Amino acid sequence: MYVTLRDRPGSDTAGRTVGRRVSSTVLLLGTVSLLTDVSSEMVASVLPLYLTAVVGLSPVAYGFLDGIYQGVSALVRIAGGYAGDRGGRPKWVAVAGYGASALSRIAMLPAQGFAAITAVITTDRLGKGLRTAPRDALIAASSDPATLGRAFGVHRALDTFGAALGPLVAFALLAAVPGSYDSVFGVSFAFALVGVAVLVLFVPNLPTAVGAARLGVRRMVTEVTGARLRRPLIAAGLLGLVTVGDGFLYLTLQDRDDFAALYFPLLFVGTNVAYLLLAVPMGRLADRVGRARVMVAGHGALLACYLLAAAPGGGLGLTVSVLLLLGVFYAATDGVLPALVAKLVPAGARGSGIAAAQTMVVLSRFVSSVTFGLLWSVTGSATAVLVFAGALAAGIPFAWWLLRRVDAEPAVEVPAAATPDSRTGGES
Length: 428
Fold this sequence. Notes:
The chain is mostly helical. 75% of the residues lie in helices and 0% in strands. The protein has a single domain, classed as Growth Hormone, Chain: A (Up-down Bundle), CATH 1.20.1250.20. It is globular, with a radius of gyration of 21 Å.
């Protein structure tokens, strides 16, 4: 039988699922992510324009920094997932990651020049890499396996609500005091600090893998995980190679339509609002029709987004369409991927499995950002987007071929004794 780390349906201990409701742990982690994303998106929404217009970076230099922003977290994602699995209580690994990202916000104030800004961005992304898999393992551990898509969708909806608020706060600050980037960095630190406090004080430190480690089944877990994740990892990496970073897409729109720099943060709002509205419906749809199907379809929306972004004509309608399609893409992929992976691996390797998939994505997106920056410098923004659109159009059918049987895979079976008994594995 499939063994989970929930209490029996109908109980409500340790923040676990009650019947088929989303657990309190998911809601608390969503609140932490909401506050953290207000903080991070305040910075992210001004960073592309700040780096290119204020600091004066070239497209190649910005592509390198965007690649770091996308990919450096890969250096510690697997370490974070493994540390959470090995210790069996991943909360404190997540705390370390959230804390590092919070400190990077205030470090932006004195940062001057390419090297200093690179160091700050690297610290932020390392923190993100460290926290993501342990956090997602906590979500999976407190949720019903049949509704993982919905659980991750609810978390991502709360996360994205913060991501939509962040650019609005940045816009308000810049509207009140034009060019006041220091105020953006300072206020973002305050939001991040509150998020860390909520995680430390209120989120239960649920057990995830202690039982598996104690009974010596980790080798079996590792072998099963590697075999079942091979095709999903290849597909995720392939699609990541042809995914253009948000900042580049927004700079492409700004380059075409030449709207005021003040309104640049609002582009992030448009995408995040669409993501917010669709995260839960997409998660529920993925639970019903298949997570692989929804993830591949999301990349179809990204393809349409590229084609509209590269169109020679501009205007408000076209810009809004690009932002909405980008939101559809994130709603169909960001929470769906860990939900897909969580089903394919045993509970004892859940954090490591999710981290492996996310690492593949961020590494491939690092390569994508650097490549796109070079291509932009040579051909211009619109042509670069069209080249990536062609590559994505070719990659989607191959990704579907790799993933076509994943939804039919049965959940991993682990002996009941290899998983901590829910009655003795309470919170600490």
